Amino acid sequence: MDNIFISYLCFALLVSVVSATYSDCGSTLGxxxxxxxxxxxxxxxxxxxxxxxxxxxQISFVPNKSIQQINAVVHGVILGVPIPFELPxxxxxxxxxxxxxxxxxxxxxxxxxxxxxxxYPRVNVEVKFELQDQSDSDVTCSMIPSKIQ
Length: 149
Ligand SMILES: *[C@@H]1O[C@H](CO)[C@@H](O)[C@H](O)[C@H]1NC(C)=O
Ligand SMILES: *[C@@H]1O[C@H](CO)[C@@H](O)[C@H](O)[C@H]1NC(C)=O
Description:
Layout: H1 3-15, E1 23-24, E2 30-37, E3 47-49, E4 53-63, E5 71-78, E6 81-85, E7 108-116, E8 124-132, E9 138-148
The structure holds 2-acetamido-2-deoxy-beta-D-glucopyranose (2 copies).
Subcellular location: Secreted
Family: Belongs to the NPC2 family.
Main location: secreted
């Protein structure tokens, strides 16, 4: 096992609220209740993102205030360096299963699909997935330890 993996594991154990795999990185206007990633089980230490495939990420959460609009902001963190990832659809109110505006205290399940391109390197990556409100505040912030394969 390498050090990065061990760090991920310690980090996940310390701050995880959802499962062993996912951790929270500062959800402020909401609480995440569940995360689901294609072919990834809660017991997996890392989610395997297969190249040349589409991966669907679902985040269930409860806003603690009413929110006009949400946008998805995604980074791939490789060796601690966050690299912006352009989602095909970053509008969290469109084709995401979430209808805007969002009401306080209600459970929403956001869903998006992203392509894992064949040209991506085979690396360990933490997917930092944020749903932000109209003023760029984090409704949810989740870290998904992953491995591109
Ligand atoms: C929502 O919760 C966060 C902390 O989890 C807090 O900072 C914020 O003030 C809360 N907002 C409301 C409207 O309760
Ligand atoms: C991923 O989804 C897009 C849009 O639906 C589709 O065009 C593409 O062929 C899919 N890629 C793979 C590898 O399945």
